[in-house]
Structure formats: structure tokens, C-alpha cells
Amino acid sequence: MTTELRRRFLLDPGVCYLNHGAFGAAPIPVFETYQRWQRELERQPTTFLTRTLEPALADARRELADYVGAGADDLAFVPNATTGVNVVARSLRLEPGDEVLSCDHEYGACDLAWRAACEARGAVYRKVGLPLPLTPEGVVEAITAGFRERTRALSMSHITSPSAAILPLDRLCAAASERGILTVVDGAHAPGQVPLDLARLGADVYTGNAHKWLVAPKGAAFLYVHPDHQRWMGSAIVSWGWSDCADLLDHSDCSFVHRSSWQGTSDPAAYLSVPAAISFHRTYLEPRHGECRQLALDARAQIAERFGCPPLLAADMVGQFVACPIPCDDPAALHDRLLARHAVEVPVFPFGGGVVVRPSFAGYNTREDLERLLAALEIELGRDRT
Ligand SMILES: Cc1ncc(COP(=O)(O)O)c(C=O)c1O
């Protein structure tokens, strides 16, 4: 389990860690960069926060923008994708009777953000049920059949949380924009797991985490907004960045990035470490993407065969993590037994009327990790190898 690459992470060497998808994990050199920034700040907080920070953040933002294929002025740092979705949901000027469309594979906290924003404005947050097993065609058909006269926005994950499915976003964005529907993408799992070219993807708004698959320290994410939509986009809080806006309601005369810049005194070290994370990812993790994806596909096939539960989605929708149905009545107890008895950390949760186990295969995972998961599942689910 402890390969050379695994030793470059801070993860407990005694645990077979198959849950990178939940919170990421930062490698030691990236974490050291993060701590260096924190020490530099604390050495002279005034100089750091009033002089050093702004140009350093602009450099980090430029590198991240390049990495995701966006213009540097079209992307602002936010602490996490949940904040990104909240900013959009609260900024969108919905009218009573308008609708925001989504699906039943979305992340729960973001569902709540949209529901709260819609309820505050008398609008409707409607979720389309996607047909299982998922296929790209099935997703496009179900979503486009769900468009209505009053659908103002389509909000979808790039890679879903409970089903770990890469959705056909380019087709969804094209179909929505043809009808004048705003596209908002929750890309929490995408940066570092799939190549991103936001300028070509066609999404109007896209939020993504650097602290998951791009291995930045916790608290590093971004919100991209196409120039056509920056005028109405607010920020998580109103602070000094808004001081140039003559009209705080309209705020079209000050830039989106500027409005999002100073968000009160906080620790910017995670944002400033993003270039180190990109560099680590390019050198050590990107080259292992194919092997990791193969492990995910093998997990999907092996679990389906050993436990008699067909896969949730088509193989071409699988990236570096995979949600596999299993015969289990008590997901929380199974999770705890896998950890306590086998030192395997893997999420197990209810989904789609059953229970799924969702192993992640990050660059530091190996085939032995997959074998250990399979052996532990066989013991705990009481099945013999067939
Ligand atoms: C699809 C999706 N969106 C949003 C989030 C939230 O990410 P964060 O906690 O970094 O805001 C997650 C977390 O796993 C997720 O899976």
C-alpha cells in the first residue's frame, strides 16, 4: 500500500484510503508550501495582507485560470464549491414562477442552496429523475425533456457526487443555451480528474474545487463566470471589493474579480498554494490517471460480478471514482466495520433505492488497495468469492 507516491502524502500509512473524492488529500510538498505562506503572513501580517497578498493572489489566480482554460479576469477564488453555488443561487434575479432545473444526482448541500434561493423569490427548484443505468444519451434526453417555458437556469454537476458519473456537459450546455437557459455547473470533482477547457465547454457559470482532485490544501476553489454574466454576479459577502461600485444593486461598473477579492480578514494560504498543487498534479498524478481510471472500472466490474448488482452507469461515464451498488441493509454499520476491522476508508451510503460503495482511486492508490477492498467486502457482506 505504501508506494513511493503514497509516501509523499500525509495520509495515515495504516489506512487503505479510498475516499479521496470526499475531501481530497494534500501531498507533503504542497502542504509545506501552504505552511510557508501561513508563516510569512504571521511574520508581518500588515505588510503581507496590505502589500504582498494582492499580487501573489493575482499570480495564483492566473495559473489556475490557465489550468482550467479560462480568462484570469473571469475567475475568482472562493473557499469551496458550496460557496460558489451559493453565490450564484443568491445572485440570480429570479422572478416568482421562474424555475431552476436540476436532477436527482446532485450534492445535497447545493440542492439546499438552490431551494433556499428559489423559495426566497417564489421560484421553483425542480429535479428531473435520471433513468438508471445512466448513459450520456439518457441524461441528455431526460434533462432536455424537462425544459419548460419558465426554466431560467439549469444547474448540474460536472461529475455527480452520489453516482460518481461524468455527465455529458457540453451537450447539456449547448441544449440549454439554444433555449436561452443559463447553465450553472457544480464542478466540485472535476479539476484534476478530467481535463477542463472552460472557454470551450460553454457553461455560463462554473464552480470547481482545487482541494479535491487537484490536491490543494482545504479551502481552495474557484467561481468562473462568463463575461456576459459578471454584471449580476455578487460575492459570498459584501466587503471592500465593492467600494468602487457606484450602485451597489447594479454593480456593473466594478469588476466581478474585484468584488470577490477582499472577503474580510482570512487565511489565503490555500489559494496561494494552488500553483504548487497544479505543479505536483502535473508531475505525479496526471501520468497515473489512466491506471486509476482502470482501477475504478475494475472495481465496478468486480463488485457487480461478485455481489450480483448491475453497475449504475455506462463505462464511459466513469472517471477516478465509481459508485457500485451492493447488497447491504445498514450502510453506516458497514462503513464502520470496513474501517475498524480492515482499515479500509471508503464511503458507503444509500442511493437510488439501494446502497452503494464509492471507492476513489487517486494517484497514490494501487491495485492492492482495490484487492483489499474486495476482500473486506466479501467478508463483511458474507459472500464467498465466485
Ligand atoms: C458534486 C459536489 N458538489 C459540491 C460539493 C461540496 O464541495 P465543498 O465541500 O468543497 O464545498 C461536493 C462535495 O463532495 C460534491 O460532491
Which short descriptors sum up this protein?
386 residues, 12 strands, 13% strand, binds pyridoxal-5'-phosphate
What does this molecule look like?
The protein contains 14 helices and twelve strands. It is 41% helix and 13% strand. The chain is an alpha/beta fold and 386 residues long. The chain is globular, with a radius of gyration of 21 Å. Helix 12 packs parallel to helix 14. A hairpin with a 2-residue loop joins strand 11 and strand 12. The chain starts with 15 loop residues before the first strand and ends in a 6-residue tail after the last helix. The strands form three sheets. Strands 2-8-7-6-5-3-4 form a seven-stranded mixed β-sheet, with helices on both faces. The chain has a three-stranded antiparallel β-sheet with strand order 9-12-11. It has a two-stranded parallel sheet with strand order 1-10. The structure holds pyridoxal-5'-phosphate. The site of pyridoxal-5'-phosphate has 12 residues, from helix 4.
Quick summary:
By secondary structure, the chain is α/β, with parallel strands linked by helices.
The termini sit apart by 25 Å
Beta-strand fraction estimate: 5-15%
Helix content: 40-55%
Q: Compute the gyration radius: what is it?
A: 21 Å
Q: Give the topology string: H per helix, E per strand.
A: EHHHEHEHEHEHEHEEHHHHEHEEEH
Low-confidence stretches: none
Number of helices: 14
**Number of E strands:** 12
